[in-house]
């Protein structure tokens, strides 16, 4: 299996607090992997370091490019990280609320287009063509995500579950090799969660995207993941298949009082 993202000894300190402590992690082509752990374990901070929102205190983050060469991502800005094939969604939905659904996805597309402000103002033939292509590509993604019907709707008017799918659609517009989802099932009802599971499987099977998801819904985690990494107090405390994780005493201890046997 070809690795796509490789992380060694990742550490992030906030003053005296070590939120991410020496984490090693790897995701291969075509994998669906979950990152779990109790509240405050450091999961979102891990995502923020990997996607360039925080500059990690220590460690190395490498992405493998399509030509199989390796690029170190430390210190790159989030938009550059996206260009290298890593996209994410947020724990709290972050959409352009007053824009249409299609425009929200087209913004995601921007990192794959070439128009700068001057050429956009001049609106030459190439730019008009590029805009047309961007709109049709974005619409295609919306259709895949079951959102075609909403394409001209203002984003904030969408039902909550559809807004969550729109966030994923926007991330997909950047053509990622690896997609990081921060609690995609939060606030969804059981039917919406089951649809989301099908959708994530479809993205892996049909679009070839590898997926790393942070999730508290253990039913979903156990059903969808091939591998699970568990964090607690910034440290990786376990790694393995859903079966191994379910039985792991360290994990059971970390989740004391919570039901991981979903
Ligand atoms: N920008 C920040 N400045 C200072 N401390 C932070 C910052 N971001 C996160 N932390 C702290 O780092 C620790 C890990 O937080 P993080 O949000 O990564 O946890 P999490 O595993 O995503 O939790 P949850 O499941 O509740 O989303 C927490 O103690 C948090 O308070
Ligand atoms: Mg979090």
Task: Name the descriptors.
262 residues; 2 domains; 38% helix; alpha/beta; binds adenosine-5'-triphosphate; binds magnesium ion; Rossmann fold
Structural commentary:
This protein is of the alpha/beta class and 262 residues long. The protein has 2 domains: 1-85 and 176-262, Rossmann fold; 99-174, no CATH class. The protein contains 10 helices and 10 strands. Strand 9 (227-232) and strand 10 form a beta hairpin. The radius of gyration is 19 Å and the shape is globular. The protein binds adenosine-5'-triphosphate and magnesium ion.
Briefly characterize the structure.
By secondary structure, this protein is α/β, with parallel strands linked by helices.
């Amino acid at each position: 299996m070809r690795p796509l993202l490789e992380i060694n000894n990742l550490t992030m300190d906030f003053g005296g607090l070590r939120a991410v402590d020496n984490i090693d992690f790897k995701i291969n082509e075509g994998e669906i992997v979950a990152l779990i752990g109790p509240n405050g374990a450091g999961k979102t901070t891990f995502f923020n370091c990997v996607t360039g929102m925080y500059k990690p205190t220590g460690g190395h983050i490498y992405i493998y490019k399509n030509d199989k060469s390796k690029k170190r991502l430390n210190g790159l800005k989030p938009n550059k990280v996206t260009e290298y094939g890593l996209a994410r969604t947020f724990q709290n939905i972050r959409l352009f609320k007053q824009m249409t659904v299609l425009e929200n996805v087209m913004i995601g597309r921007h990192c794959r287009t070439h128009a700068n402000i001057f050429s956009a103002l001049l609106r030459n033939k190439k730019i008009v063509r590029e805009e047309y292509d961007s709109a049709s590509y974005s619409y295609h993604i919306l259709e895949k995500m079951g959102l075609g019907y909403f394409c001209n709707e203002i984003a904030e008017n969408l039902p909550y579950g559809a807004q969550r799918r729109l966030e994923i659609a926007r991330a997909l517009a950047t053509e990622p090799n690896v997609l990081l989802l921060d609690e995609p099932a939060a606030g969804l009802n059981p039917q919406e969660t089951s649809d989301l599971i099908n959708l994530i499987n479809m993205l892996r099977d049909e679009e070839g995207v590898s997926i790393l998801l942070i999730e508290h819904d253990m039913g979903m985690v156990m059903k969808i993941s091939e591998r699970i990494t568990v964090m607690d107090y910034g440290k990786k405390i376990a790694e393995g298949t859903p079966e191994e994780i379910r039985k792991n005493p360290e994990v059971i201890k970390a989740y004391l009082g919570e039901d991981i046997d979903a």
